[in-house]
From TrEMBL:
SMART domains: IG (SM00409), IGv (SM00406)
Domain Ig-like residue range list: 35-127
UniProt keyword Glycoprotein, yes or no: yes
Protein name: Ig-like domain-containing protein
Origin species: Pangasianodon hypophthalmus (Striped catfish)
GO terms of biological process kind: cell surface receptor signaling pathway; cellular response to lipopolysaccharide; immune response; negative regulation of T cell proliferation; positive regulation of T cell proliferation; T cell costimulation
Protein location: Cell membrane
Coiled coil (UniProt feature): none
C-alpha cells in the first residue's frame, strides 16, 4: 500500500519533470554583449519559406515571405540592424543576425510560421562585458589563493 502510493507519486514526479524539460527546451537562451551582434536561431522542421520574426509578440523585427526578406512592417528600432541569410531559407534555417545590440533588445523573440505550428522562441540576454570581466577575475584569484593556503596547511 505504502509502496504503491510512493510509486504513483514517483510517476507523477517523473511526468512533471518531462513536461518541464520539454517546455524548457523549446526556448533557446542566447547571451550577447552590448554593442555587438548576435545570431537569433530559427529552424523550421517542416516545409516552408515563410517566417515572421517578432519581439515580445508585438514589434516586427522582419518578415521572410516566400523566401524573400521584407522590412516594410519593421519596427524603426531594428532599422539597418537586421541581416538574414537567404541562401539558408531552403534548408529551413530562418536565423537572423541582430547588430549593434542595445540593452532594450533583451527579451523574447519568436519566429512564427504561417501554419498553426509552434513558433521558435529565443530569449536574448544583453550583457555589458566590462563589469562582468573585471568583477569576476579578482574573485576567482582570491578563491585560488585561499585554496593554496588551505592545501599548504
Ligand atoms: C511586451 O508587450 C506588453 C504588451 O503586449 C507590454 O506591456 C510590455 O511592456 C512589453 N515589453 C517589452 C519589453 O517591450
Ligand atoms: C543557420 O544559419 C546561420 C547563418 O548562416 C548559421 O549561423 C547557423 O549555424 C545555421 N543554423 C543551422 C542549424 O544550420
Ligand atoms: C566588449 O569587449 C570587446 C572586446 O572583447 C570590446 O571591443 C567592446 O568594446 C566591449 N564592449 C563594451 C560595451 O564594453
Amino acid at each position: 500500500m505504502f509502496v504503491d502510493v510512493n510509486g504513483r507519486y514517483f510517476v507523477v514526479f517523473v511526468f512533471l519533470m518531462l513536461i518541464n524539460s520539454v517546455s524548457a527546451q523549446s526556448v533557446q537562451v542566447v547571451n550577447a554583449n552590448l554593442g555587438r551582434s548576435v545570431i537569433l536561431p530559427c529552424t523550421a522542421n517542416h516545409d516552408t519559406l515563410t517566417a515572421y520574426w517578432r519581439y515580445n509578440d508585438s514589434k516586427t523585427v522582419c518578415d521572410i515571405i516566400r523566401g524573400k526578406v521584407n522590412f516594410e512592417e519593421q519596427d524603426p528600432v531594428y532599422k539597418s540592424r537586421v541581416e538574414s541569410f537567404p541562401s539558408k531559407f531552403a534548408k529551413g534555417n530562418f536565423s537572423i543576425k541582430l547588430s549593434n545590440l542595445k540593452k532594450s533588445d533583451a527579451g523574447i523573440y519568436t519566429c512564427n510560421f504561417p501554419s498553426t505550428l509552434t513558433p521558435g522562441t529565443v530569449q536574448l540576454r544583453v550583457t555589458e562585458n566590462r563589469t562582468g570581466d573585471v568583477m569576476r577575475r579578482p574573485d576567482s584569484l582570491l578563491l585560488f589563493l585561499l585554496g593554496c593556503v588551505l592545501l599548504s596547511n
